[in-house]
Amino acid sequence: MTEQELFDLSIKYFPRENIESTRILGNRVVVQIKNLAEDKVRAEELKSVVQKILPTHKVSVIFVTSAEVNLGVAQIEKWQINGVKKIIGVASGKGGVGKSTTAVNLALALANCGQRVALVDADIYGPSVPTMLGYEGSPLTTADGEHFNPFLEYGIQSVSIGALIDRNTPLIWRGVKACGAIEQLLTQTLWNNVDIMVLDMPPGTGDILITLSQRIDFAGIVIVSTPQDIALIDAVKGVNMFKKIGTPVLGIVENMSWFVCPHCGKRTDIFGFDGAKETAVRLGENFLGDIPLDMVIRAGADNGAPIVAASPDSPHSKAYEQIAHKILAQIGI
Q1: Distance separating alpha carbons of residues 116 and 198, to the nearest angstrom
Q2: Residue 113 φ then ψ, to 5°
Q3: Residue 58 sits in the same domain as residue 114
Q4: How does pLDDT run along the chain (333 residues), one tens digit per residue?
Q5: What is the count of structural domains for the chain?
Q6: pTM of the model
Q7: Handedness of CA 9, 10, 11, 17 (dihedral sign)
Q8: At what angle do helices 99-112 and 295-302 cross, to 10 degrees?
Q9: Do 178 and 261 fall into the same domain?
Q10: Using CA atoms, how far apart are residues 256 and 141, in angstroms rounded to an integer?
């Protein structure tokens, strides 16, 4: 089956004008439908037909927002974040892919590259940066009653909503209130001459993420995904959302890329092989690098000693630094 034949088949199920693309890459088939309400029945029918033609392929039908949808970016005033030169976001289409661990180690890697770095934990419903950087249980302080003093851990400045609430307290906030809290952390913290701020964003493509993209002048977004098909489907949605809003995407990081058994030394591709790299190529985005699934990385994050800080000369730390160098080159630092 060719991509044109895939397109001809797809228009039997969806209007021609709503088919954004039909792609066949390796053993993956992806049909993107734009500006149309998600129709799971027709999507499953199309997937079933394609699967019969290409039984060894993974088939996905993805519904994306149209490029013509007006999200009002130009009319919305940006937040004024003083003391910060450039901001990058770290996002993921779904939770559980190691986004926050990547954000923390990436921030430390950028610092190792000679940058003055800040890290903001905007993952409002699951703040984990205080645990990873070791300031969990420490309250935010203020010198004037109006502005927060950022924590300074491992040479980077940081704040988190997790420093304002008990770790076991769930935040039952709607988008407006959640965004208000993030705005306060960003605009009312005394940032000290920051070259680059890393913003750990909430997972998914919901209204909080859209508001942040509208209100913050991002230099770009880093998308984190595992090689797993189910994670990549959501990563594609994330990339497309940022494109539609007009926020530049710096590239994709493949996390939990492989696992090496500590006993026999055998490599196992638990979540698949090169899925994020292939997806980046298909979308025309940069592939920034891959990070393995390793107990050392996990343990460091859990114990408040991220691997880039605890073992800066390790191969894993160097992998994060290579990603950092690629990002710095893209944003002109």
Answers
A1: 11
A2: -85, 5
A3: no
A4: 888 999 999 999 999 988 988 888 767 788 888 888 778 889 999 999 999 999 988 888 887 765 434 444 445 788 999 999 999 999 998 888 999 999 999 999 999 999 999 999 998 888 999 999 999 989 889 878 889 999 999 999 999 988 877 666 666 666 678 888 899 999 999 999 999 999 999 988 777 888 898 899 999 999 999 888 878 888 888 888 888 778 899 999 999 998 888 888 888 888 888 888 898 888 889 999 999 999 999 999 999 999 999 999 999 999 999 999 999 999 987
A5: 2
A6: 0.76
A7: negative
A8: 90
A9: yes
A10: 36
The secondary structure of 198-244 as a DSSP string is EEEPPSSSSHHHHHHHHHS--SEEEEEE-S-HHHHHHHHHHHHHHHH
Could you say which of 32, 64, 96 is where a domain stops?
A: 64
Q: Is residue 146 part of a domain?
A: yes
Same domain flag for 250 and 314: yes
Task: Looking at the structure, tell me whether residues 168 and 239 fall in a common domain.
Answer: yes
- Report the half-sphere exposure of 168 (CA within 13 A, side-chain side): 0
Q: Are 134 and 13 within one domain?
A: no
Q: Within this chain, do residues 185 and 251 fall inside the same structural domain, yes or no?
A: yes
Q: Which of 201, 174, 196 has its CA nearest to residue 100?
A: 201
